[in-house]
């Protein structure tokens, strides 16, 4: 029975940092592994469920079909500044490269399994896609090209994220994603995009260049989303102890400044997910006039569950934001309670001072005694009224801040309406007499 093996694991390649890797492959035979027990298969992703669709291509080679090769995607940062690639000191020696729509395209780079050069698309979302290159060559590209350009990486990742797929070239087939295998073949002509009149030297057929670009952009989005998922999981782990602290001690266990910093990190996650130009929700403008290329892009995005994963990340961010909102209200109430205690203490001190100052008169006799007593009582009532007013004002401000209510604007007589169509000065305004 043919079984598709899928793994997301942490591996340690030679001369490379620890990598979080997601691979998709369908072997032609089951190879029992006596050292490690088999894990139960998952059937939640469309790519896994449709993996059997690629088996006829894999097990039935034809004279026109190439060998199965690798598409390897690597994300090393949150963003790339693609304009910095032009400043690479050895750009000419790296092979033919140029800007290609929203990517920087290396038409020939490195050496694949068969000894032929591969192809690399570098995208601004912090990832690049290698066609026909193995994992070691992809890491060498990251070291020599990406690492050789100062300032190209914005917010480098602590552990790079990877995606791995496979493809074949068959000129008599139709270009498509079949199961978990990309088939590069015949493509219909473009509608409005004019292909270049001449192409630089490349390893793969020029007529599938735009198809490779569309598949690559979808792959790069999935890998960048994987990096965001890992970062969000680490963030949620750092916040996981707050509910337990509230349940045990009744205190958040985190100061106001630390909580505001955490809220800023959360807003950064949501901005990167939904508001940046290279977000995960919208189809790029490049495909609006090219339905065939949009079909390639959508098929790969659907196979990698990009939309479902984006919704899941948004749900996690929403939950974290609600939890932090509750904590922020608790900190506000705690601060208000402390302010009330301080006001009460100040009132008590003022009463004590009044008693010490007017004590001899209070314990006198006759009219002087009654006069001093009335004066002290009046002073005490005045202090209590001021304290009560301060407490009411503080409580009202706290409620307005918690409810998000804005204070109304008080109109002065000069700002009032005079009953005509447009507002103007009143007749009794001294400025206009």
From TrEMBL:
Residue spans of biased composition, Polar residues class: 43-53
Domain DUF155: 120-314
Stretches the record annotates as Disordered: 21-60, 414-433
GO biological process, one term: positive regulation of mitochondrial translation
Coiled coil is among the record's keywords: yes
GO cellular component, one term: mitochondrion
Record Pfam families: DUF155
Keywords for the protein's UniProt record, in alphabetical order: Coiled coil
Keyword Coiled coil attributed: yes
Coiled coil: 373-404
InterPro entries: DUF155 (IPR003734), RMD1/Sad1-interacting (IPR051624)
Family the UniProt entry places it in: Belongs to the RMD1/sif2 family.
Protein name, UniProt field: DUF155 domain-containing protein
Taxonomic path: Eukaryota, Fungi, Dikarya, Basidiomycota, Agaricomycotina
């Amino acid at each position: 029975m043919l079984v598709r093996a899928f793994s997301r694991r942490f591996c340690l390649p030679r001369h490379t940092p620890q990598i979080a890797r997601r691979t998709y492959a369908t072997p032609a035979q089951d190879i029992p592994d006596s050292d490690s027990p088999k894990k139960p298969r998952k059937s939640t992703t469309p790519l896994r469920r449709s993996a059997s669709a690629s088996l006829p291509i894999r097990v039935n080679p034809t004279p026109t079909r190439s060998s199965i090769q690798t598409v390897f995607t690597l994300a090393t940062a949150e963003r790339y500044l693609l304009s910095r690639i032009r400043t690479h000191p050895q750009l000419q020696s790296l092979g033919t490269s140029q800007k290609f729509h929203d990517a920087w395209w290396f038409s020939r780079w490195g050496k694949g399994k068969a000894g032929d050069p591969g192809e690399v698309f570098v995208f601004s979302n912090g990832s690049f896609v290698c066609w026909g290159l193995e994992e070691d060559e992809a890491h060498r590209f990251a070291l020599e090209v990406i690492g050789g350009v100062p300032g190209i990486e914005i917010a480098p990742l602590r552990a790079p994220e990877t995606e791995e797929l496979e493809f074949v070239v068959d000129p008599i087939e139709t270009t498509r994603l079949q199961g978990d295998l990309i088939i590069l073949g015949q493509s219909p002509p473009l509608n409005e995009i004019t292909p270049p009149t001449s192409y630089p030297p490349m390893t793969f057929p020029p007529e599938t260049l735009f198809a490779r670009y569309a598949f690559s952009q979808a792959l790069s989005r999935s890998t960048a989303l994987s990096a965001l998922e890992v970062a969000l999981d680490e963030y949620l782990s750092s916040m996981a102890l707050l509910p337990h602290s509230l349940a045990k001690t009744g205190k958040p266990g985190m100061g106001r400044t630390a909580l505001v910093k955490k809220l800023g990190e959360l807003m950064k996650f949501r901005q990167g997910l939904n508001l940046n130009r290279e977000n995960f929700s919208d189809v790029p403008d490049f495909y609006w006039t090219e339905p065939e290329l949009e079909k390639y892009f959508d098929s790969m995005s659907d196979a990698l569950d990009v939309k479902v994963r984006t919704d899941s990340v948004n749900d996690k961010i929403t939950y974290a934001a609600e939890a932090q909102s509750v904590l922020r209200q608790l900190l506000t109430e705690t601060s208000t309670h402390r302010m009330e205690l301080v006001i009460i203490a100040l009132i008590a001190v003022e009463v004590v001072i009044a008693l010490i100052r007017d004590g001899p008169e209070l314990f006198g006799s006759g009219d002087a005694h009654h006069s001093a007593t009335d004066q002290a009582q009046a002073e005490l009532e005045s202090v209590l009224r001021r304290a009560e007013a301060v407490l009411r004002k503080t409580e009202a401000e706290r409620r307005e801040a918690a409810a998000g209510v804005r204070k109304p604007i008080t109109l002065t007589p000069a700002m009032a309406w005079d009953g005509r169509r447009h507002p103007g000065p009143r007749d009794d305004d001294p400025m206009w007499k």
